[in-house]
Amino acid sequence: MQLQQSKGYRVIAEWLTKKDFRPFAFQEETWQHIAEGKSGLVNAPTGFGKTFSVFLGAVIDFINHNPNNYTKRGKNGLQLLWITPLRALAKDIGRAMEEVIEGLGMQWNIGIRNGDTPVNERQKQKKSPPEVMIITPESLHLLLAQKNYADFFSSLKIIAVDEWHELLGSKRGVQVELAINRIVAVSSQQSAIGFQPSAVSHQRSKISDQKSEIRNNFPLIWGISATIGNLEQAAEVLHASLPLGTETVTVKARLKKNIEVESIFPDEIEKFPWAGHLGLKLIHKVIPIIQQSRTTLIFINTRGMSETWYQGLLNTAPDLAGALALHHGSIEPKLRMWVEDALHTGILKAVVCTASLDLGVDFRPVETVIQVGSPKGVARFLQRAGRSGHQPDAVSKIYFLPTHSLELVEAAALKDAIKEHIIESREPMVLCYDVLIQYLCTLAISDGFDADTTFNEVTHTYCYQHMTKDEWEKILQFITAGGVALQQYDDFKKVEVMNGLHRITSRKIAMRHRMHIGTIVSEAMLKVKFVSGGYVGVIEEWFISRLDPGAVFTLAGRNLELVGIKDMTVLVRKSNAKKSIVPSWQGGRMPLSANLGKKLREELDKANRRNDAIKDPEMYVLKPLFRLQSQLSKTPLHNQLLIEHIETQDGYHLFVYPFEGRLVHEAMAAILAWRISSITPITFSFAMNDYGFELLSDQPIPVDDSNVYELFSPDNLLNDIQRSVNATEMAMRKFRDVAVIGGLIFQGFPGEQKKARHLQSSASLLFKVFMEYDPGNVLVQQSFREVLDQQMEEVRLRNMLERIQQSDIVITFPQQLTPFCFPIKVDSMRESLTSEKLEDRVRKMQQQLE
Predict the structure, then answer these.
(1) What is the pTM of this model?
(2) Which of 89, 112, 353, 379 has its CA 20 to 30 A from that of 577?
């Protein structure tokens, strides 16, 4: 049947007409595919109604199957499972869905299930499932930990994964893969055919005959994604668990979102720039933008800087008090929800925020976005730009405010990348054994699992498709007997084999496991409360443990005096102190993406052009800086690597500029130091930023035309990584996260979490035991692999070295520090100086150099 002729389509079309709406072609295409029983992935720009493409498709499908009684209340069971990465999105999506259901006169219930859902509401959902369940990956795995969970999903027609591009490439994405895999498997077991993914390889000849019947037995899997570089692969990962022969589609909205990017220029361009200080000096240029717009979102890359910006805006424009708010992940949830509601109703003039407001929430009053500092990637910049003009015909307006003058090159690079549709890929994670161990224990708590059947199931996910039988046996031995190294300790014998099924029968182990389902491993957090009562937010233990009672710090936009720490709670009182310590959170600094780094190198070509040939205003205003760089050294072209030898009173400096991001530069600095020390006995200290790195020594550094290509060779890279950095030490620290996710380390009950250093010491002890007695342990091997892939970015590092081999390496010998090396030099001084002393020192250095 054609979609337009169906009862469901006519009902929806009538409702849309009453609201003076018309569906986009991509929405109708999605509805048609859903009506035909196909799974797929929807890709559309922000603000064009991706949510309604799948949600209304589910409603149309339901009405088509229940044309005469779709408005009557009945026990329909769960129809649509909507997986969302953020709790904040659930409320917003639920609100939009309820408006539709009410407008159609339907009796569907929309349920929300996440960490904030009260216990009585969860019990109610279990007894009488809502037609739509909006859920986070962690809460979905908690459902799989319940007895008879298959009954809950028995009526399920569609699984929708919202913001799939955000989940892909993370362990939460792997959680989603496993959950879909299990739901598809139990659907097959409950169907008449009993078709399972595990039977795929044995039933290839039967597939074509059973195709139409199979489709009816499985919930459809639909992903909703913004544009990413590897969209086809994203669809492949999402649909990997569907049976062979299941037809899937990718629906692309052929719509263009108009984005205006405008840079905020300082009155004077510093010829010797340095990171972090310039942004706040441009606050006076931000105030008029806020005043001219209905509502403005100001994105800051770190929570600490967002606190500083909030205070800075209030100090500069006191009349914004009451109309300016702060939003980040460490602020008390009720306050965050108030800010989100206030954004919806348009009562706030501006909100200073972090990535906490990056995703999907539809704030229609937002007209303008300001990005403070580099967004580090094209996709993130587009995502944030899309928070403004969140309607199909509206223009998304985003301002770029540099935190040092060289960041203006990134603004020009971002503009070009947007024009050329160059967007980063999100590489899917593979062989995450810690997540698999957690998942197996989840199944063991509920109804148990059969080892052979489950192996066949999970090897049909993208993440575990290359897992060997030997690795699987090691994992089973690990959860049942503690593996090779821990078999003497009963605490690690969690799972028992009973009547052929792997089960957890201990109530204590089951309770501990349920409490720590999830893959987000953060630093130990402490609640912050007023002595007089009232919750402020959370702060990392490592930061607060360095402060003495009486110290004043900032959180949630307030100055707070530390009274003391009691029962994992930080007690504070309000402070009127003018100065306060701004908290810092671990993991705050993101590296430059490969795509943005490539565009950055290409932008530098423009710096070598004549003034009248430079079209970008950003590159034009930086002309004096580039002129000075060229006079003192060289401004490199995109196919050149610049190396500067500079001698100062601090010693001998080697500055290298690959423009490949902080993590790659950190690894390359260590490898280069190792390779040079193999030539001659020499010691170094390192510093790096996203543009380059520095080696500093007390003797001349032997890098010249005779050896430079060899020093930057990709040959023996893995061996040199192992020798140059303490890979074992890095893997041991990474093992802490792996061990927590895999359930090796219990983090403690609520209110009595273990301290971070205790967690680390427990993990270190286990790591050393495994290294000595079970070096082939899958979790240890995973830790080493994650260090290479995530902390060292080994693939990107290798690509950089191969690129350098094809490039022209230019070595210069400037007589003083240059504009390019100055920000790296300043970064190297941060550890030993307070921010005020650093600013004084930098000012003196700038005066001397100029």
Answers:
(1) 0.85
(2) 353
